[in-house]
Amino acid sequence: MAKSNHLMLNRRAVLAATGAATVTLAAPGIVRAQGKEIVVGGAASHKSFVEGVVGPTFEKKTSCKIVFEGTRSLVNLEKMQKNKDKQYLSVVMMDDPVMIPAIAEGLLLKMTPAAVPNLAQLKPGTVHQDGMWCNYLQPWMGIAYNPKAMKGTVPSSWADIYDPKYKGRVVVPSLQNTEGLVNLFMAAHLATGKPMAEAQKDIDAGFKKLVTLKPNLLTVYTQMPQAFNLLEQGEGYMIAGAISQVALERKAAGAPVDAVAPKEGIFSLPLGAALVKGGPQPELAAAFINTMIDPEVQARLAVATYSLPTNKDAPVPPGMPTNATVHPIDWAVVARDRADWVKRWDRDMAM
User: Fold this and answer.
1) What CATH number corresponds to the domain at position 237?
2) What DSSP letter does each residue of 119-152 carry, written as one string?
3) Is the pTM of this model over 0.90?
4) What domain range is 217 assigned to?
5) Residue 180 and residue 212 in one domain
6) 30-43 per-position pLDDT tens digit
7) Are 306 and 320 in contact (CB under 8 A)?
Protein backbone atom coordinates (compact mmCIF):
# COMPACT_ATOMS: atom_id res chain seq x y z
CA MET A 1 0.00 0.00 0.00
CA ALA A 2 1.05 3.60 -0.38
CA LYS A 3 3.55 5.14 1.99
CA SER A 4 0.90 7.66 2.91
CA ASN A 5 -0.80 4.96 4.95
CA HIS A 6 1.92 5.13 7.57
CA LEU A 7 1.32 7.05 10.76
CA MET A 8 3.45 10.12 11.31
CA LEU A 9 3.69 10.23 15.08
CA ASN A 10 4.13 13.11 17.49
CA ARG A 11 7.24 11.85 19.28
CA ARG A 12 6.70 13.95 22.37
CA ALA A 13 3.16 12.65 22.71
CA VAL A 14 4.34 9.07 22.40
CA LEU A 15 7.03 9.54 25.01
CA ALA A 16 4.58 11.23 27.35
CA ALA A 17 2.11 8.40 26.82
CA THR A 18 4.54 5.79 28.09
CA GLY A 19 4.27 7.26 31.55
CA ALA A 20 0.54 6.66 31.82
CA ALA A 21 -0.99 4.10 34.15
CA THR A 22 -0.70 0.42 33.31
CA VAL A 23 -3.84 -1.32 32.06
CA THR A 24 -4.97 -4.68 33.36
CA LEU A 25 -5.38 -7.27 30.62
CA ALA A 26 -8.94 -8.48 30.26
CA ALA A 27 -8.08 -11.75 28.50
CA PRO A 28 -8.66 -14.73 30.79
CA GLY A 29 -6.06 -17.35 31.44
CA ILE A 30 -3.03 -15.36 30.30
CA VAL A 31 0.00 -16.98 31.84
CA ARG A 32 3.15 -15.07 32.71
CA ALA A 33 5.66 -16.03 30.07
CA GLN A 34 9.05 -15.23 31.54
CA GLY A 35 11.72 -15.24 28.85
CA LYS A 36 9.27 -15.57 25.98
CA GLU A 37 8.72 -13.24 23.04
CA ILE A 38 6.37 -12.75 20.12
CA VAL A 39 7.18 -11.20 16.78
CA VAL A 40 4.76 -8.54 15.51
CA GLY A 41 4.89 -7.42 11.90
CA GLY A 42 3.64 -3.92 11.11
CA ALA A 43 4.33 -0.65 9.32
CA ALA A 44 7.80 0.72 10.02
CA SER A 45 6.37 4.04 11.20
CA HIS A 46 4.29 2.25 13.85
CA LYS A 47 7.37 1.18 15.78
CA SER A 48 7.24 4.18 18.11
CA PHE A 49 3.75 3.57 19.43
CA VAL A 50 3.95 -0.24 19.46
CA GLU A 51 7.13 -0.19 21.51
CA GLY A 52 6.45 3.03 23.41
CA VAL A 53 2.73 2.81 24.25
CA VAL A 54 1.46 -0.76 23.80
CA GLY A 55 4.68 -2.59 24.64
CA PRO A 56 5.22 -1.56 28.28
CA THR A 57 1.66 -2.46 29.26
CA PHE A 58 1.76 -5.81 27.48
CA GLU A 59 5.22 -6.76 28.69
CA LYS A 60 4.54 -5.88 32.32
CA LYS A 61 1.45 -8.06 32.47
CA THR A 62 2.79 -11.05 30.53
CA SER A 63 6.59 -10.90 30.93
CA CYS A 64 6.62 -11.49 27.19
CA LYS A 65 8.81 -9.29 25.01
CA ILE A 66 7.64 -7.78 21.73
CA VAL A 67 9.95 -8.00 18.75
CA PHE A 68 8.60 -5.53 16.19
CA GLU A 69 9.44 -5.93 12.50
CA GLY A 70 8.59 -2.77 10.61
CA THR A 71 7.89 -2.99 6.90
CA ARG A 72 5.01 -2.66 4.41
CA SER A 73 1.75 -4.60 4.50
CA LEU A 74 2.53 -6.51 1.31
CA VAL A 75 5.91 -7.57 2.70
CA ASN A 76 4.20 -8.97 5.80
CA LEU A 77 1.85 -10.89 3.51
CA GLU A 78 4.85 -12.32 1.65
CA LYS A 79 6.46 -13.37 4.93
CA MET A 80 3.37 -15.32 5.92
CA GLN A 81 3.13 -16.91 2.48
CA LYS A 82 6.77 -18.02 2.51
CA ASN A 83 6.58 -19.37 6.06
CA LYS A 84 3.15 -20.99 5.87
CA ASP A 85 4.45 -24.34 7.19
CA LYS A 86 6.41 -22.75 10.05
CA GLN A 87 5.28 -19.23 10.86
CA TYR A 88 7.44 -17.01 13.04
CA LEU A 89 5.14 -13.97 13.11
CA SER A 90 2.45 -14.12 15.78
CA VAL A 91 0.58 -10.89 14.93
CA VAL A 92 0.36 -8.82 11.76
CA MET A 93 -0.71 -5.19 11.55
CA MET A 94 -1.65 -4.60 7.91
CA ASP A 95 -3.87 -2.45 5.73
CA ASP A 96 -7.37 -3.88 5.44
CA PRO A 97 -7.16 -4.62 1.67
CA VAL A 98 -4.13 -6.85 2.31
CA MET A 99 -6.11 -8.85 4.85
CA ILE A 100 -8.38 -10.09 2.04
CA PRO A 101 -5.78 -12.27 0.24
CA ALA A 102 -4.32 -13.34 3.59
CA ILE A 103 -7.71 -14.76 4.57
CA ALA A 104 -8.18 -16.37 1.15
CA GLU A 105 -4.86 -18.20 1.57
CA GLY A 106 -5.70 -19.38 5.09
CA LEU A 107 -2.95 -17.34 6.75
CA LEU A 108 -5.00 -15.71 9.52
CA LEU A 109 -6.60 -17.13 12.66
CA LYS A 110 -10.07 -15.97 13.62
CA MET A 111 -10.24 -13.98 16.87
CA THR A 112 -12.96 -14.74 19.38
CA PRO A 113 -14.32 -12.65 22.27
CA ALA A 114 -13.13 -15.39 24.61
CA ALA A 115 -9.51 -14.87 23.51
CA VAL A 116 -9.77 -11.14 22.80
CA PRO A 117 -12.49 -9.81 25.14
CA ASN A 118 -12.12 -6.16 24.05
CA LEU A 119 -13.42 -7.08 20.59
CA ALA A 120 -16.91 -6.73 22.05
CA GLN A 121 -16.23 -3.07 22.84
CA LEU A 122 -15.15 -2.00 19.37
CA LYS A 123 -17.19 0.38 17.23
CA PRO A 124 -19.49 -1.02 14.54
CA GLY A 125 -17.61 -1.65 11.32
CA THR A 126 -14.20 -2.14 12.96
CA VAL A 127 -14.38 -5.94 13.39
CA HIS A 128 -14.25 -7.65 10.02
CA GLN A 129 -15.35 -11.01 8.64
CA ASP A 130 -16.62 -12.26 11.97
CA GLY A 131 -13.34 -11.62 13.77
CA MET A 132 -10.68 -12.33 11.16
CA TRP A 133 -9.21 -8.88 11.84
CA CYS A 134 -10.02 -5.68 13.64
CA ASN A 135 -9.09 -2.01 13.35
CA TYR A 136 -6.97 -0.74 16.22
CA LEU A 137 -7.06 2.98 15.30
CA GLN A 138 -9.01 5.30 13.01
CA PRO A 139 -6.76 8.00 11.60
CA TRP A 140 -9.38 9.96 9.68
CA MET A 141 -9.38 11.53 6.25
CA GLY A 142 -11.02 14.91 5.76
CA ILE A 143 -9.93 18.30 4.40
CA ALA A 144 -6.73 20.04 5.48
CA TYR A 145 -6.55 23.76 4.80
CA ASN A 146 -4.37 26.83 5.30
CA PRO A 147 -6.26 29.27 7.59
CA LYS A 148 -4.12 32.21 6.46
CA ALA A 149 -4.60 31.58 2.76
CA MET A 150 -8.32 30.94 3.29
CA LYS A 151 -8.57 34.21 5.27
CA GLY A 152 -10.48 32.60 8.11
CA THR A 153 -12.90 30.62 5.93
CA VAL A 154 -13.24 27.06 7.19
CA PRO A 155 -14.28 24.37 4.67
CA SER A 156 -17.54 22.82 5.79
CA SER A 157 -18.36 20.51 2.89
CA TRP A 158 -16.56 18.26 0.45
CA ALA A 159 -18.39 20.28 -2.21
CA ASP A 160 -16.28 23.34 -1.31
CA ILE A 161 -13.32 22.06 -3.29
CA TYR A 162 -15.42 22.36 -6.48
CA ASP A 163 -16.17 26.07 -5.93
CA PRO A 164 -14.78 28.05 -8.92
CA LYS A 165 -13.27 30.64 -6.55
CA TYR A 166 -10.62 28.04 -5.66
CA LYS A 167 -9.36 27.67 -9.23
CA GLY A 168 -5.83 26.30 -9.17
CA ARG A 169 -5.74 26.09 -5.36
CA VAL A 170 -6.85 22.53 -4.52
CA VAL A 171 -4.50 19.59 -3.95
CA VAL A 172 -5.65 15.97 -4.07
CA PRO A 173 -3.89 12.61 -3.72
CA SER A 174 -3.55 10.28 -6.64
CA LEU A 175 -5.75 7.21 -6.67
CA GLN A 176 -2.50 5.28 -6.23
CA ASN A 177 -2.57 6.55 -2.64
CA THR A 178 -5.10 4.98 -0.29
CA GLU A 179 -6.37 8.39 0.81
CA GLY A 180 -7.13 9.16 -2.84
CA LEU A 181 -10.05 6.75 -2.77
CA VAL A 182 -12.10 9.04 -0.55
CA ASN A 183 -12.36 11.73 -3.22
CA LEU A 184 -13.70 9.19 -5.71
CA PHE A 185 -16.33 7.90 -3.31
CA MET A 186 -17.33 11.34 -2.10
CA ALA A 187 -17.60 12.59 -5.68
CA ALA A 188 -20.06 9.78 -6.40
CA HIS A 189 -22.07 10.76 -3.32
CA LEU A 190 -22.13 14.45 -4.29
CA ALA A 191 -23.10 13.61 -7.86
CA THR A 192 -25.89 11.17 -7.09
CA GLY A 193 -27.10 12.00 -3.59
CA LYS A 194 -27.05 8.28 -2.82
CA PRO A 195 -26.09 7.08 0.67
CA MET A 196 -22.36 6.46 0.83
CA ALA A 197 -22.69 2.68 0.84
CA GLU A 198 -24.54 2.88 -2.48
CA ALA A 199 -22.49 5.76 -3.89
CA GLN A 200 -19.29 3.71 -3.56
CA LYS A 201 -20.76 1.34 -6.14
CA ASP A 202 -21.41 4.13 -8.66
CA ILE A 203 -17.81 4.63 -9.72
CA ASP A 204 -18.75 6.03 -13.13
CA ALA A 205 -20.64 8.91 -11.49
CA GLY A 206 -17.68 9.51 -9.23
CA PHE A 207 -15.24 9.86 -12.10
CA LYS A 208 -17.56 12.15 -14.05
CA LYS A 209 -17.81 14.44 -11.01
CA LEU A 210 -14.05 14.38 -10.41
CA VAL A 211 -13.36 15.54 -13.96
CA THR A 212 -15.17 18.79 -13.13
CA LEU A 213 -12.61 19.40 -10.36
CA LYS A 214 -9.68 19.67 -12.78
CA PRO A 215 -9.81 23.49 -13.20
CA ASN A 216 -9.41 23.84 -9.42
CA LEU A 217 -6.43 21.50 -9.14
CA LEU A 218 -3.03 22.88 -8.28
CA THR A 219 -1.51 19.40 -8.32
CA VAL A 220 -2.18 15.71 -7.81
CA TYR A 221 0.37 14.13 -5.49
CA THR A 222 1.74 10.70 -4.78
CA GLN A 223 4.27 11.97 -2.21
CA MET A 224 2.57 13.63 0.77
CA PRO A 225 5.38 16.03 1.82
CA GLN A 226 5.03 17.80 -1.54
CA ALA A 227 1.35 18.44 -0.88
CA PHE A 228 1.88 19.88 2.60
CA ASN A 229 4.73 22.08 1.40
CA LEU A 230 2.37 23.65 -1.12
CA LEU A 231 -0.31 24.06 1.54
CA GLU A 232 2.00 25.65 4.10
CA GLN A 233 3.44 28.04 1.51
CA GLY A 234 -0.08 29.22 0.68
CA GLU A 235 0.04 28.09 -2.95
CA GLY A 236 -2.48 25.41 -2.12
CA TYR A 237 -5.51 26.33 -0.05
CA MET A 238 -6.92 22.86 0.66
CA ILE A 239 -5.90 19.21 0.51
CA ALA A 240 -8.97 17.03 0.00
CA GLY A 241 -8.47 13.59 1.48
CA ALA A 242 -5.80 14.70 3.95
CA ILE A 243 -4.89 12.34 6.79
CA SER A 244 -5.61 13.68 10.26
CA GLN A 245 -2.37 12.84 12.01
CA VAL A 246 -0.25 14.37 9.27
CA ALA A 247 -2.19 17.65 9.18
CA LEU A 248 -2.60 17.95 12.93
CA GLU A 249 1.02 17.11 13.62
CA ARG A 250 1.99 19.97 11.31
CA LYS A 251 -0.47 22.23 13.14
CA ALA A 252 1.06 21.25 16.49
CA ALA A 253 4.47 22.16 15.10
CA GLY A 254 3.23 25.69 14.34
CA ALA A 255 2.56 25.37 10.60
CA PRO A 256 -0.43 27.26 9.11
CA VAL A 257 -2.42 24.05 8.75
CA ASP A 258 -5.64 22.73 10.22
CA ALA A 259 -7.98 19.84 9.45
CA VAL A 260 -11.76 19.63 9.38
CA ALA A 261 -14.38 16.91 9.20
CA PRO A 262 -16.86 18.08 6.50
CA LYS A 263 -20.58 17.77 7.11
CA GLU A 264 -20.96 14.80 4.75
CA GLY A 265 -18.65 12.75 6.96
CA ILE A 266 -15.12 11.37 6.96
CA PHE A 267 -13.29 8.14 6.22
CA SER A 268 -10.69 6.23 8.20
CA LEU A 269 -7.42 4.66 7.15
CA PRO A 270 -7.57 0.85 7.05
CA LEU A 271 -5.30 -0.10 9.97
CA GLY A 272 -5.94 -3.74 10.82
CA ALA A 273 -4.52 -6.25 13.29
CA ALA A 274 -4.81 -10.02 13.03
CA LEU A 275 -3.52 -13.28 14.49
CA VAL A 276 -1.24 -15.36 12.27
CA LYS A 277 -2.53 -18.89 11.83
CA GLY A 278 0.08 -21.30 13.14
CA GLY A 279 2.07 -18.47 14.67
CA PRO A 280 3.99 -18.98 17.94
CA GLN A 281 2.38 -18.23 21.29
CA PRO A 282 -1.22 -17.78 20.03
CA GLU A 283 -2.53 -17.01 23.54
CA LEU A 284 0.00 -14.22 24.01
CA ALA A 285 -0.63 -12.97 20.48
CA ALA A 286 -4.33 -12.62 21.36
CA ALA A 287 -3.34 -10.81 24.57
CA PHE A 288 -1.26 -8.35 22.53
CA ILE A 289 -4.21 -7.43 20.30
CA ASN A 290 -6.46 -7.25 23.35
CA THR A 291 -4.00 -4.77 24.88
CA MET A 292 -3.96 -2.64 21.72
CA ILE A 293 -7.73 -2.24 21.83
CA ASP A 294 -8.04 -1.80 25.60
CA PRO A 295 -9.84 1.52 26.25
CA GLU A 296 -7.02 3.03 28.33
CA VAL A 297 -4.32 2.07 25.84
CA GLN A 298 -6.60 3.29 23.04
CA ALA A 299 -6.90 6.66 24.75
CA ARG A 300 -3.13 7.06 24.76
CA LEU A 301 -2.72 5.81 21.20
CA ALA A 302 -5.37 8.21 19.91
CA VAL A 303 -3.61 11.20 21.48
CA ALA A 304 -0.19 10.09 20.25
CA THR A 305 -1.37 9.55 16.67
CA TYR A 306 -4.05 12.27 16.24
CA SER A 307 -6.57 9.52 15.55
CA LEU A 308 -9.98 8.32 16.68
CA PRO A 309 -10.01 5.30 18.99
CA THR A 310 -11.88 2.20 17.88
CA ASN A 311 -12.92 1.13 21.38
CA LYS A 312 -16.30 2.67 22.22
CA ASP A 313 -15.22 3.22 25.84
CA ALA A 314 -12.09 5.21 24.97
CA PRO A 315 -12.42 9.01 25.06
CA VAL A 316 -12.04 10.99 21.85
CA PRO A 317 -8.98 13.26 22.18
CA PRO A 318 -9.49 17.03 22.25
CA GLY A 319 -9.58 18.52 18.78
CA MET A 320 -10.86 15.34 17.14
CA PRO A 321 -14.32 15.19 15.52
CA THR A 322 -16.84 13.79 17.98
CA ASN A 323 -20.04 13.63 15.93
CA ALA A 324 -18.80 13.07 12.38
CA THR A 325 -20.03 10.05 10.46
CA VAL A 326 -17.15 7.70 9.67
CA HIS A 327 -18.04 6.05 6.37
CA PRO A 328 -16.96 2.41 6.04
CA ILE A 329 -15.24 1.31 2.86
CA ASP A 330 -15.76 -2.08 1.23
CA TRP A 331 -12.11 -3.07 1.02
CA ALA A 332 -12.87 -6.34 -0.74
CA VAL A 333 -14.28 -4.33 -3.65
CA VAL A 334 -11.31 -1.98 -3.54
CA ALA A 335 -8.89 -4.92 -3.67
CA ARG A 336 -10.79 -6.36 -6.65
CA ASP A 337 -11.29 -3.22 -8.75
CA ARG A 338 -8.62 -0.71 -7.77
CA ALA A 339 -6.23 -1.48 -10.63
CA ASP A 340 -8.96 -0.61 -13.15
CA TRP A 341 -9.84 2.56 -11.23
CA VAL A 342 -6.21 3.70 -11.29
CA LYS A 343 -6.10 3.23 -15.07
CA ARG A 344 -9.20 5.36 -15.49
CA TRP A 345 -7.85 7.97 -13.08
CA ASP A 346 -4.64 8.23 -15.11
CA ARG A 347 -6.69 8.72 -18.25
CA ASP A 348 -9.47 11.01 -17.01
CA MET A 349 -7.53 13.16 -14.52
CA ALA A 350 -4.39 13.81 -16.57
CA MET A 351 -3.44 17.47 -16.23
Assistant:
1) 3.40.190.10
2) GGGBPTTSEETTTTEEES-B-EEEEEE-TTTTTT
3) no
4) 140-268+326-348
5) yes
6) 444 445 999 999 99
7) yes
